[in-house]
């Protein structure tokens, strides 16, 4: 089913430009509320939890969503600034009908978005999103006054989530003796993540923890990890942890400032789980480095690739009955700990692996050497289809013929921005870069 409004991670775009406008978001809340009211008819009035990141537009969109839900007869609980995975956890823990996050994740503050979680703390199935989209295009009405929804604030959301995160770290271990730089990207975890690592015993040096509504992801966080690496060197820390604006991504660095992406961190997590029991397999994406696939094969671990996007990684994990998956961008999933990707929880899994092994991060990754990758993002008009441009197709085929079995080419459209992503992976870094640029240069001006 083609989706009109929903992308790979909810509805997202530039604030003030359709669909991220107050009137549309109110209709989205109403439509989602009507769908939820229908599916929860037997259990009485549905209740949804709304969380948001630190963007200035969050206030406006929160009010619009609340009005839409209330008009549909749905009660609302407001969590305020809260990581995306926190909303997933709280929705499940409080037995609510759904969770909603107002966030554009790693995008700049001018963007925002709306994403939903089911009562199980998982992303909504495509069929439910399609039903909501169908309802959006229907006239918006309002239930009778006596059936209107109410709104209240969830006062203990922060404390509940901090305790949940700590519960995913082994009881017999602690973080005493570790000095950690923690980059919160001026995002939703700014008032949560430092407490988690501090309460487990680490000395925490927090950066990117002063949001002002406009600085989310700006030079800090998982999409700009050099700030974390520089702070690690400045403070002579043991490790660096960088989250993104809604704290569902994780990038780390060691004491020397060397940055580790999601592929490497997934390798550390899976190797650690192998110490306590068999691991059937793990899921990556079309962008996952070939070296990880080869390494898992040598360890006897199954490996599958999903479309790019954590929702698709999760789908393949469930199809195979596997617990672990992730993306190089830092979305990591460990279904024995959480129902969705969680930057804080993932960092705790890596830290527990280091503690159990007695090894540093660089030594845990010693047996994994990533193949050089070049990724070039090219801005294109909305709806651009590279497969209909013969010059791009021909150049891609030429590069693939040159690489043979020593590399691969992937071209895909971003699910959240008007971009074409050209990726070439090869054993030689110069070959990867030059061939990727050849393809990218064929994008029509």
Layout of secondary structure:
Blueprint lengths: L10 E4 L7 H18 L7 E6 L5 H14 L3 E7 L2 H10 L4 E5 L8 E7 L8 H11 L14 E3 L3 H11 L11 E5 L9 H7 L3 E5 L18 H10 L3 E5 L6 E5 L4 E2 L1 H13 L6 E5 L4 H9 L3 E5 L3 H11 L3 E3 L5 E3 L8 H15 L3 H4 L8 E7 L10 H14 L3 E7 L5 E8 L2 H12 L5
Parallel strand pairs: 2-3, 2-4, 3-6, 7-8, 7-9, 12-13, 12-14
Antiparallel strand pairs: 1-5, 4-5, 9-10, 10-11, 14-15, 16-18, 17-18
Mean pLDDT: 94
> Per the principal axes of the C-alpha atoms, what is the gross shape?
globular
Largest sheet, order of strands side by side? 1-5-4-2-3-6
Reported for the largest beta sheet, the result is: 6 strands, mixed
Q: Which secondary-structure class do the elements indicate?
A: alpha/beta
What's the count of strands? 18
The CATH topology label of the largest domain is Alpha-D-Glucose-1,6-Bisphosphate, Chain A, domain 3
Question: Per CATH, which architecture of the largest domain?
Answer: 3-Layer(aba) Sandwich
Q: Kindly estimate the percentage of residues that lie in beta strands according to DSSP.
A: 15-25%
CATH class of the largest domain: Alpha Beta
Report, as a whole number of angstroms, the end-to-end distance: 31 Å
Low-confidence stretches: none
Number of helices: 14
Binding site for Mg(2+): 105, 244, 246, 248
Pfam family, one: PGM_PMM_II
Enzyme class: isomerase
Family: Belongs to the phosphohexose mutase family.
